[in-house]
Inverse folding.
């Protein structure tokens, strides 16, 4: 019992500390001290743990300072944690609209787009809750079919259970998909003003093309110490120095 109470006190203290520190950062933001607010939000996410709201506010600070690459980076991090948030989506689109390189992603199968849009309409926790609730309600539907004598109730129970089973499966798959995205970070944002993409991990290799700050890339090979092979949204790929980008 003492251990449980100790854990409760520690958890409460952590939440109180997080709220207090974030409140200080929020106050700086409201006073339009964006540089200090950004430093405060950075401190919150480094010492107290990551949160979509903190990344979103941090992105706002950098956007107000016209530091578009850092704004895009933090909006992307916020979107990764809470893709269903409309404000995060809108500000990310606004910040990406101010980047130099305008890319048109290659076409993809409609069901791939549909599944990505579906999984991104809610956060991982929301999908998990929906999956649990659907499963529990499905069990009630099965029990109603098995033990209720009224024919109408039995039909509602069994057909409802079938629908809820589908919902539970989709919800769990969406939650797993988001969990994988959050734990296997395979995208990054270019932070250097301009980067020459190389054909191989060497300064002496052939120059392929130029990419500018704020561009989003997919990491293909991150095993080297100073170089990273990346793929850009329009499909082109090559090698860039690791110091030129930051993983989302």
């Amino acid at each position: 019992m003492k251990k449980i109470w100790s854990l409760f006190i520690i958890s409460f203290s952590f939440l109180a500390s997080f709220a207090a520190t974030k409140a200080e950062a929020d106050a700086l933001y409201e006073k339009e001290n964006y540089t200090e607010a950004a430093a405060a939000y950075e401190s919150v996410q480094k010492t107290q743990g990551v949160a979509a709201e903190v990344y979103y506010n941090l992105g706002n600070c950098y956007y107000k300072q016209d530091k578009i690459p850092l704004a895009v980076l933090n909006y992307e991090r916020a979107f990764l944690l809470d893709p269903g948030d409309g404000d995060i989506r809108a500000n990310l689109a606004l910040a990406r609209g101010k980047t130099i390189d305008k890319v048109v992603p290659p076409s993809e199968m409609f069901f791939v787009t549909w599944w990505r849009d579906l999984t991104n309409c809610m956060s991982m926790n929301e999908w998990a809750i929906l999956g649990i609730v659907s499963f529990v309600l499905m069990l009630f539907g099965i029990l109603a079919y098995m033990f209720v004598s009224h024919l109408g109730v039995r039909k509602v129970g069994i057909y409802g259970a079938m629908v809820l089973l589908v919902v539970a499966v989709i919800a769990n798959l969406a939650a797993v998909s988001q969990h994988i995205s959050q734990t296997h970070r395979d995208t990054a944002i270019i932070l250097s003003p301009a980067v020459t993409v190389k054909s191989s991990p060497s300064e002496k290799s052939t120059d392929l093309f130029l990419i500018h700050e704020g561009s989003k890339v997919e990491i293909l090979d991150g095993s080297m110490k100073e170089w990273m092979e990346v793929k850009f949204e329009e499909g082109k790929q090559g090698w860039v120095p690791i110091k030129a980008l930051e993983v989302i």
Summary: The beta strands are 187-190, 194-198, 207-212, 216-221, 227-232, 237-241, 245-247.
